[in-house]
Amino acid sequence: MATATSHLSVEAERLFSLLLDVDCTPGSKWTLERCREIAPLTAEINELKREKNAVILAHSYVNPEIVYGVADYRSDSYALSLAARDSGADVIVFAGVVFMAETAKVLSPRATVLVPDRASGCSLADSLSGDELRELKRHHPDAAVVCYINSSVEVKAESDVCVTSGNAYKVVASLREREVLFVPDSIMARNLQDELRRNGVDKVLHTSDGSCIVHDQFTPDLIETERARYPDLAVVSHPECAPEIVARSDYVGSTGGMMEFVRYSDAPYFMMLTECGLVSRLEAENRDKRFISSCKLCPYMKLNSLRKIRDVLVAPTADQVIEVEPAIASDARAAIDRMFELAATPQR
Ligand code: 13P
Ligand code: SF4
Fold first, then answer.
1. Which pTM does this prediction carry?
2. What residues does ligand 2 touch, defined as CB less than 6 Å away?
3. Which CATH superfamily is domain 125-212+325-344 in?
């Protein structure tokens, strides 16, 4: 009994050392008391992982108690895809959203891939079906079909190549075809088209009409207001933000790229135009820097919780187990593998 109690207090101390500078609820930081409350659950989940040869992949947008309490890998969509492909685990719990778990299943077909909450969709992935993409392809027969990874597995299966926020420009610029059907993010397509034009790359992008309900909330006046208050402010945004935001940013990139930028920047203040989970990670890992409140919550990412992760590891329900039809998985895998190949090719 005494051993179990001391094991839990070590776990609580471990959590507190990682979370102490992170907001727990708006305006209040994590306390040792709160870490003591969650320690039994994180300890139980970490023990279940050992028993089941399971790994937890967490996107940086999920709550920090997941990212720092139980995740084996914490990163952006690209790095988590590689982790899913290479982990060798029997069970993968994806604390993120469903399209990420589908990608993990395609890349690691022998593993049991689980999602804590099946309702964790994505406004981009849910904006376009495989049938709708087939119809769009009929209107653009000469275009290379490029899907952003924030898409369903059926859309990936209909695409020539997949991209993530970190490699979209490099992959699209490297394609032979002049015409590109880029789905389902119409805003990222506009940002790509602008960048290609600026760099003198002759391509015409067609798109569908999806957008991210989180990143499309940022407006340029927000940036102007904060720049007036903090002249040394570095504005950091995700390429799912509108072109007017991108044009006013000091850095634009994937969530992994945004973390790298902050780590190596000398700026004292940062305005992060992305989901709040990333700001929690930055607070935890950059204690000398200050983040100006600006982030927004993704309701889908926030469906993940420690309790749901414990429950899915103990007894998954049918809808928490990700299954992908073999023919669709094989076509989707080809599009994802082509991304790995093109993303790794040195640029001329
Ligand atoms: P990243 O691949 O940059 O982490 O983006 C994922 C995402 O869903 C952004 O909204
Ligand atoms: Fe989808 Fe936007 Fe949420 Fe990312 S932040 S998972 S793009 S809804």
1. 0.96
2. 97, 122-124, 150, 212-214, 240, 275, 298, 300-301
3. NadA-like (3.40.50.10800)
